[in-house]
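step=encode ok
step=design start
structure_in=
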């Protein structure tokens, strides 16, 4: 068995430059920590408001952008908007995990998670195109939550804002469908090419 020839200095340097992405992924981990803090802050305010704390209630009302009659107790609309906000934070956090884990595995270095009981199912066959489709799907989910929040609180938005949010959501949907279709075409042509050889 022949030993691989040593890499020349320039290709070695170019290949090693992938480690410059490491600080970016570490930064995203810090952003994830901020999202966890944000989630727990909102949840604590929600629990306090449910027990009648007026200051916590007003903080929630301000954070969700609810306007209208003065709110003196937690109602179903405010509860729904706050819960949707919490779901939104979780979905963005999931998106961050996909980018951090999938991006690091794809572009920086293998994590050697084979056989680990907590290895995500999608990570075993992750590549740049799979990651793109998963990210597009996650962005549609986040956009759907934002759109639902806007429609629940529609009285506080102009028709123009409602229309543009809907148009942007449809553009996200069409983009994701285009990415998935392109990925499917590329996979099919790659499979046909492999069969020929």
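sequence_out=
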């Amino acid at each position: 068995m022949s030993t691989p020839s040593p890499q020349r200095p320039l290709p070695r340097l170019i290949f090693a430059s992938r480690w410059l992405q490491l600080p970016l992924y570490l930064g995203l981990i810090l952003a994830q920590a901020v999202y966890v803090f944000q989630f727990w802050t909102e949840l604590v305010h929600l629990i306090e408001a449910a027990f009648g704390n007026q200051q916590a209630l007003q903080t929630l009302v301000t954070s969700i952008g609810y306007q209208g009659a003065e709110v003196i107790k937690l109602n179903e609309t405010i509860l729904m908007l706050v819960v949707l906000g919490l779901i939104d934070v979780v979905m963005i956090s999931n998106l961050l995990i996909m980018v951090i884990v999938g991006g690091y595995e794809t572009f920086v270095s293998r994590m050697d998670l084979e056989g680990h009981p907590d290895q995500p199912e999608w990570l075993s066959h992750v590549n740049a195109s799979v990651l793109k489709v998963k990210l597009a799907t996650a962005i549609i989910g986040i956009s759907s939550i934002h759109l639902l929040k806007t429609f629940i609180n529609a009285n506080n938005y102009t028709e123009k804002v409602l229309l543009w949010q809907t148009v942007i959501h449809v553009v996200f949907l069409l983009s994701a469908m285009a990415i998935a279709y392109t990925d499917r075409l590329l996979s099919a042509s790659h499979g046909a090419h492999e069969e020929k050889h």
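step=design ok
step=annotate ok -> The radius of gyration is 23 Å.
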